[in-house]
Amino acid sequence: FFDAFSIIKKVKPSIIVSSGGFVSVPVCLAGKIFKKPIYLHEQTATVGLANKVVGKFAKKIFVSFNNSAKYFPKGKSIHSGNIIKKEIFNKNILPNTDKEIIELFVTNKELPFIYISGGSLGSHSINRKILDNIQTLLRKYRILLQTGENEIFKDFQKGIEIKNSLPSSLKERFVVKKYIDINTIGYVLNNMNLFIGRSGANTVYEIGVLKKNALFIPIPWVTHNEQYLNAKVLKDLGIADILEEKYLEDSNLEEEIERFEEQLKLRNIDKEKLDQLFPTNAIYFVLDSILKEYLKD
Question: Which SUPFAM superfamilies match (predicted)?
Answer without folding.
Answer: UDP-Glycosyltransferase/glycogen phosphorylase
